[in-house]
């Protein structure tokens, strides 16, 4: 079977220190001879020492020699506020969302995806910090609104209602007061969900709720069309970092539509990560922000999704099923993101977790992965296990 891997390296946020080229090269040299790697994603700390060739330039040269594509990892509707002022999101009741900073070494303040100034801001930061580096492509992250896990409760998910967004709803004949009414009504399941049809498609009791989520996804898609056009004109290939299908509607991601804009997608299928995008973390946040008694709403939502409530770790069979469904509905190749880094209390990743995960995927015919989300913090034993499994003499893949 053909197996293809993408490596991901986190160099730090926009305001953070970057990493040394030596550290990157050492780590790449330790795995590249053994693994079928075709792409490396790296970002997004700007280089501080401008008089020297940067970590990105040197990595680009290193990868070009080996015929490996090099993607700049770049956040779109979050993070950019660190580098520039951004217009913030406004909730359903007209209140601005305060920033929630620094989760997982990243800044999770989101901005309004409909404000052209925020889109210009993305291009400005790219031009200023990265345009001189010979990347093959760009890997766009945070192409979304806040999730339940961003500390705003429901307010972040039921946004944005700034004057510009209000005008957009009006053009679409959507009345936010209908959404307010829907959210204040007692419902029999989280947000009045009546069914989960897979591939991120839910049905809701109240049409105002489903209409709202469809509009959010349409707005993100429109802004992404514009952003992708800009990078396509530079001759870039494009990858997207996206939420798992069952979480995607709540953050404004219609995965099937988005798949038409890019060359590959990586759903973050992080079963162990207790940080944003991590499946257990996001699911718990969703349940916490729903009205009603925890045990009851958990039982209802798990049943809707078909999730096993008795698993110690996030349900692997469900994760594989979600990924398979996504692959069938996607217009571009899909590489599920599997954690390989170990971060204390946040992503306690050990070799057995990686093996169990990769084996379950390959048994379902899924052989392409993004080893996420930071190669530099992946312990040797984790990398050794991956080489044993999918390396030159590997038993799977
Ligand atoms: Zn807005």
Write the layout of secondary structure elements.
Elements: E1 4-10, H1 21-31, E2 37-43, H2 55-65, E3 69-75, H3 80-83, H4 116-130, E4 137-141, H5 154-157, H6 163-171, H7 176-184, E5 193-196, E6 202-204, H8 207-233, E7 237-242, H9 255-258, E8 264-267, H10 279-288, H11 294-305, H12 316-329, E9 337-339, H13 351-363, E10 368-372, H14 380-390
Helix pairs in contact: 13-14
Please give a structural write-up.
It is a single chain. The protein is an alpha/beta fold. It has a single domain (4-390), classed as TIM Barrel, CATH 3.20.20.80. It has helices at 21-31, 55-65, 80-83, 116-130, 154-157, 163-171, 176-184, 207-233, 255-258, 279-288, 294-305, 316-329, 351-363, 380-390; strands spanning 4-10, 37-43, 69-75, 137-141, 193-196, 202-204, 237-242, 264-267, 337-339, 368-372. Helix 13 runs parallel beside helix 14 (380-390). The protein is globular and about 60 Å long. The mean pLDDT is 92. Bound molecules: zinc ion (ZN). Zinc ion (ZN) is lined by residues 112, 114, 160, 162, 164-165.
Proportion in β-strands:
5-15%
What is the count of structural domains? 1
Largest sheet: 8 strands, parallel
Regions with little confidence, pLDDT below 50 for 5+ residues: none
Count every beta strand, where a strand is a DSSP E run of 2 or more residues. 10
- Which percent bin holds the helix content? 25-40%
Bound molecules: zinc ion
CATH architecture: Alpha-Beta Barrel
**Can you give the mean pLDDT?**
92
Name of the CATH first level = Alpha Beta
Number of helices: 14
Our measurement of the CA-to-CA distance between the termini, rounded to an integer number of angstroms, reads: 5 Å
Element string (H = helix, E = strand): EHEHEHHEHHHEEHEHEHHHEHEH
Secondary structure class reads alpha/beta
Q: Major sheet: order of its strands?
A: 8-7-4-3-2-1-10-9
Could you tell me the CATH topology label: TIM Barrel
